[in-house]
Amino acid sequence: MSIPNEALQKLLQEIESRVISSQQQIGITKAQMTTKQRDMRMLELTSKEIGTLPGDTKVYEGVGRMFVAVPRTAVDKRISTESTELKSEIEGLEKRMNYLEMTFKNSRENLEQILKSGRA
């Protein structure tokens, strides 16, 4: 039993659009992961630098166009909170990346199967 040409063509277009969409989403997700990892590294470096300072050193944070003196414990707490949030976001992006890669792989395999069966 053979699939009509119109239905086959429509199926191919649908699978091809899924492949293209997956590729685009993979690129976007990779860029987001890179950004989050860079932010994480910045937080780690900041935490390391603040950790080397003596306990009585004044610490300032930027607020708009000015700097405000902030207790060192508040800065440590903020860095810790942001690190935790970034870790969870990176984990979510990794899960999304795995899903997108599987979708891409399956779509490509389906496309190849259809093309091979069309030739036979």
UniProtKB/TrEMBL annotation:
<keyword id="KW-0143">Chaperone</keyword>
<keyword id="KW-0175">Coiled coil</keyword>
<dbReference type="InterPro" id="IPR009053">
    <property type="entry name" value="Prefoldin"/>
</dbReference>
<feature type="coiled-coil region">
    <location>
        <begin position="83"/>
        <end position="110"/>
    </location>
</feature>
<dbReference type="InterPro" id="IPR002777">
    <property type="entry name" value="PFD_beta-like"/>
</dbReference>
<dbReference type="GO" id="GO:0044183">
    <property type="term" value="F:protein folding chaperone"/>
</dbReference>
<dbReference type="GO" id="GO:0005737">
    <property type="term" value="C:cytoplasm"/>
</dbReference>
<comment type="similarity">
    <text>Belongs to the prefoldin subunit beta family.</text>
</comment>
<dbReference type="Pfam" id="PF01920">
    <property type="entry name" value="Prefoldin_2"/>
</dbReference>
<dbReference type="GO" id="GO:0016272">
    <property type="term" value="C:prefoldin complex"/>
</dbReference>
<dbReference type="GO" id="GO:0051082">
    <property type="term" value="F:unfolded protein binding"/>
</dbReference>
<protein>
    <submittedName>
        <fullName>Putative Prefoldin subunit 1</fullName>
    </submittedName>
</protein>
